[in-house]
Design goal:
93 residues, 2 domains, two-stranded antiparallel sheet, 5 strands, 41% helix, elongated
């Protein structure tokens, strides 16, 4: 599911709200989540999972075309850990 599909589904389930309002709400939610992660925080959605930021150290990598060694800078990457309820729903037979 992509963002526009999420908005369309929410609009269909909530006919009393306009699509523009739903787009705004979804945008604000994602913006706040992004800002919390950018500030070094954590975003936890009970039953779904938790987003956090992990640091990756600098390392030596290789250019796949030439095989030449290149340096890769240290960086921060988002990390998602699924919640127990999500894992149980995905693995229910």
């Amino acid at each position: 599911m992509i963002k526009s599909e999420l908005i369309a589904k929410l609009a269909a389930e909530n006919p009393h709200l306009t699509q523009r309002d739903i787009e705004r709400v979804v945008g604000v939610i994602f913006d706040r989540m992004t800002q919390a992660l950018a500030d070094g925080g954590r975003v936890e959605l009970r039953g779904f999972g938790a987003f956090s930021v992990r640091s990756r150290p600098a390392r030596a990598g290789r250019n796949p075309r030439t095989g030449e060694q290149v340096s890769v800078k240290a960086k921060h990457v988002p990390f998602f850990k699924s919640g127990k309820e999500l894992r149980e729903r995905l693995n229910a037979d």
